[in-house]
Amino acid sequence: MTDLKQKKPHHHGDLRNALIRAGIDILEESGLESLTLRKCAARAGVSHAAPAHHFDGLAGLKAAIAEEGYRVFRNYMLDARMIGPDTPHARLRSICRGYVSFAVDNPALFELVFSFDAQASEQHGLNRDGSASYQVLRETCAPFVAAGQDPTPVELQVWSLIHGFTVLYLAGRFGPVDRDLRQFGPYEEVMAILDALPLAPQA
C-alpha cells in the first residue's frame, strides 16, 4: 500500500488545477489512451473519488484539460507572432510556426484539444476557449480579407493548410518529427501557398 506521505502533495483549495496538471503530465508521458480519473488522482496524491467533486466524469476532466490546452495553444501562436517580423505574410508564417510547435511539443494535448466535436465542445463550455484561439487566426488573416467581405473562406484556407500539414507531420508522413522547420521542404511548400495570398484592399 502506498504511503500517503509520499504522494505528490497539492495546494489546499487548488485540487482542480492539481488534477488538470496531473492529467497533462500523464498525457505527455503516456498519451491520450492512458488518461483516467484514477491515474490523475494518484498523480495528484488524492483518493480516487476526489475528481468526482470537480469533474463530471472523465469527459469533464478531458474538457478541463482541453481548456488549458487551448490557452497554451493560443500563447504559442501569440508568442510566435510577437517575435516574428511585423508584416502581414510574416505574421501568418509566425502563427503557423507556433501552431506546429505547440503540436510537436504537446502531441497528446494537441490530439485532445481537437478531439472534441462541436456538440461536445458546446456541452463542456469549450467554444469560448476555442474561439479565443481562433481569434488569433482571424486577426492574422484580416489583412487578406477585403473590407465588408466574409473572412471565413480565407481563414479556413489557412487553417486547413496548417492543420492538415501538422497532423501529417506528427504522423511521420514527412519523416522524423523535428521542431526546427527551417529548410524543411514540405513545410516551406505550405508556407509558399500562404505567401501567395494577396493582400486585400481595405476601405
UniProtKB/TrEMBL annotation:
InterPro entries: Homeodomain-like_sf (IPR009057), HTH-type_TetR-like_transc_reg (IPR050109), HTH_TetR (IPR001647), MT1864/Rv1816-like_C (IPR025996), Tet_transcr_reg_TetR-rel_C_sf (IPR036271). Residues 13-73 form the HTH tetR-type domain. Keywords: DNA-binding, Transcription, Transcription regulation. Pfam families: TetR_C_33. Coiled coil: none annotated. Residues 36-55 bind DNA. This is TetR/AcrR family transcriptional regulator.
